[in-house]
Amino acid sequence: MKYLMWLLNAAIFFVLFAFALNNQSAITVHLFFGAQWQVPLVLALFIALLLGVCLGVFVMLPLWLRARKSRAAATKTVAQASESPNTALDTSVASSPTL
Q1: 21: pLDDT confidence band, cut at 50, 70 and 90?
Q2: Domain residue limits, the chain
Q3: Which of 39, 42, 74, 86 could form a disulfide with 23 if both were Cys (CB 3.0 to 4.6 A apart)?
Q4: CA 55 to CA 69: how far, in whole Å?
């Protein structure tokens, strides 16, 4: 399985490398106030990908933190329940007849 994952990673790397080699032509990115930026196409695509990932993480962060907080509260409740013995359950078990 380890070799299969290594092979898959190598294939993905070579596909992305070939994509980068085929998209080296320069493009002009027009910014605000008439500013222009000459950049290779592959670099512009990579920057757009990074901005999209950062935006996605930023949008999902409150949901992740809320889920983490509720998971911690649930874990604390379970830990407290396991620490305190249930006396009603203990007495019913002790009074049950044995065969």
Answers
A1: confident
A2: 25-63
A3: 42
A4: 22
- Hey, how many other C-beta atoms are within 10 angstroms of the C-beta on 20? 15
The count of residues in the chain is 99
Let me know the angle formed at the C-alpha of 71 by 70 and 73, rounded to the nearest 5 degrees. Answer: 65
Residue matched to tokens 């065969």: 99
Residue 81 has phi, psi (to 5 degrees) of: -70, -35
pLDDT-above-70 percentage for the chain: 85
**DSSP conformational letter for 35:** -
Two structure tokens written together for 66:
């809320």
Pairing mode of beta strands 36-40, 26-30: antiparallel
pTM of the model: 0.59
